[in-house]
Amino acid sequence: MNVPSLTLNNGVEMPALGFGVYQTPPEETVAVVETALRTGYRHIDTAAVYGNERGVGEAIGRSGIDRSEIFVETKVWITDFGYDSTLHAFDKSAGKLGLERIDLLILHQALPGDFARTLDAYRALETLLANGKVRAIGVSNFMPDHLARLAESTSVVPAVNQIEVHPYFRQSELLADDAARGIVSQAWSPIGGITFYREGAHGSTLQDPVINGVAKVHNKSAAQVMLRWHLQQGRQVIPKSVTPSRIAENFDVFGFELTAAELTAIDGLDTGVRGGPEPEYITLDKHGIEIPEA
Ligand SMILES: NC(=O)c1ccc[n+]([C@@H]2O[C@H](COP(=O)([O-])OP(=O)(O)OC[C@H]3O[C@@H](n4cnc5c(N)ncnc54)[C@H](OP(=O)(O)O)[C@@H]3O)[C@@H](O)[C@H]2O)c1
Q1: 151-205: per-residue pLDDT in tens?
Q2: What predicted TM-score, i.e. pTM, was given to this entire model?
Q3: Do residues 273 and 202 lie in contact, with contact meaning Cβ atoms separated by under 8 Å?
């Protein structure tokens, strides 16, 4: 099964369905990513701060799949922001991944209180792009104001903005802003992983009656319905799992279509409540973590 692709604003093709490895323990990462690649995933989303880039690289190397067929994405953590330190962050990530070139390199967060440093980090990504070290560059957790400030001072429009999007937190305005700027919205926690341990009425999206009602009609799971909802609305998705049966289940999402009414019903579940940290309050003091050398 070939996953359909999305064309980024610089012409690079990215699979519409990728595989996330946040919280995948480093010692399990090789086996988990090998399973994902065997299942058919051709896009892996990791990050310097996840501590498992080495495992991702090892699985890619062992897979025997041609490097050109696998789209590798990683993220620069805020501790490495700054022109020279972000150039060096590429060396650290590429070294751990065992790759000469990274397909998509993004800034993991903005540093709203030190935006000059965020801009310097992004300028380093522009240099890496110009030098052919990366095929595309982007951002994550950037709000409309951050995107506007970035556009004022830099020349390359981010190819993607990786943001929290699931049925309980749709971020409609941000999605519209990304689209207006030609940025692909990449949904993190696409099946609402961040909601699973929440108490109260809008706890796990997996238990939601509307989503389960739609799932029953199509004889699919709640997770598959959520992934279809994103894909049909043009978002890229990167579900995470360490469980082989779920890795397979999340890949099996191209043989059915949700109706317009079903998509609208899922849109209606938005609570406006964010699960992840508020992007405006990310600071080096609170969130700084040293990223080891390769
Ligand atoms: N840029 C950012 O700031 C940011 C933040 C968070 C995440 N991300 C990226 O987005 C990826 C996905 O987000 P996420 O990991 O938070 O959430 P997610 O993919 O929505 O959900 C992951 C959770 O769902 C479980 N699961 C997976 N498939 C399932 C299925 N078919 N049925 C039931 N449960 C299932 C997983 O359990 P098992 O693993 O135990 O199977 C795990 O607990 C991450 O891995 C990472 O690459 C980025």
Answers
A1: 999 999 999 999 999 999 999 999 999 999 999 999 999 999 999 977 766 789 9
A2: 0.98
A3: yes
Q: Which atom of ligand 1 is nearest to the CA of 191?
A: 20
Tell me how far apart the terminal alpha carbons of the chain are, to the nearest angstrom: 35
87 phi and psi angles, rounded to 5 deg: -60, -40
Q: What structural domains does the chain harbor?
A: 5-286 (3.20.20.100)
Query: What pairing do the DSSP bridges indicate for beta strands 102-107 and 236-237?
Result: unpaired
Placement of tokens 């801009």 in the chain: 119
Question: Counting atoms of ligand 1 from 1, which one is nearest the CA of 46?
Answer: 47
Phi, psi of 166 (to 5 degrees): -155, 175
Among this protein's residues, is 50 annotated catalytic?
A: yes
Within 169-277, where are the H helices? 172-181, 209-218, 222-232, 244-251, 260-267
Instruction: Count the neighbouring beta carbons within 10 Å of the beta carbon of residue 263.
Output: 16
- 149 Cβ closer than 6 Å to some ligand 1 atom: no
Q: What is the 3-state secondary structure (H, E, C) of 78-129?
A: HHHCCHHHHHHHHHHHHHHHCCCCEEEEEECCCCHHHHHHHHHHHHHHHHHH
Given 22, 41, 50, 83, the catalytic residue: 50
CB 215 within 8 Å of CB 224: yes
26: CB partners within 8 A, 6+ apart: 51, 52, 54, 55
* Block residue for tokens 């990786």: 162
Residues 153 and 29 sit within 8 Å (Cβ to Cβ): no
How far, in Å, is the centroid of ligand 1 from the Cα of 288? 23
